[in-house]
Amino acid sequence: MQDQLINEVSLHAPRPEPIPFGLREFGNIPPNSVSAWVAVREKDLGKIALQGIKITDSKREINNKTEEIFDEEAQKAGKQLRRRQCVFATPLPPEKMRYKFSGVGDIVLEIKIDQNSGKEMLVADGEKVTEASDRLNSFGVESAHSWAKSYWNEATTLKQYTEEQKRIDTETNSNDYDFIETFPPNAYGFVMPEILIPSDIPAARIRVHSTKK
User: Tell me: the pLDDT tens digits for 118-135?
Assistant: First the structure.
């Protein structure tokens, strides 16, 4: 009886979507490209296989007060980028991140970024966005502005971040870390490094990294 119940549950359980053929391997990749990672919903894989990842897919709300504050501080800092006009990715593979990267049911994609595209790409600490949002709700606008200002002032170019992380990785013996409770340091001390990419990501530069739930 128990085996019968298990079989009936298995038959009615939602089956995972097959990985679209176009997301199984990369297409043509520009020389000197670097890897980054993005978490997406499983149901979006078919669309991404056809269209890639678009800036318009971002969930940043138009009327989000925290993002408005970050836009204001970006302008003050002389930054051309705006968070709501970017695709977001992490420069670290999820299995080497201290904090949970994806939600339940998400699929992790590896993308390739052309550092020589001529477009400005920055890496900043996403933890400061969380702090700014929390401070906005708890202490008011000025406190949130302080975190947003720090976010932009400490942001660095993707090329500089990549070079610094390579230096750290070279000097760090990875055997000293189990990537479960202990992790090597992130470049520039960023808690949750995020790449701001001011362009869509073509499907040819995307492949599935992990389908773990």
Answer: 788 999 999 999 999 999
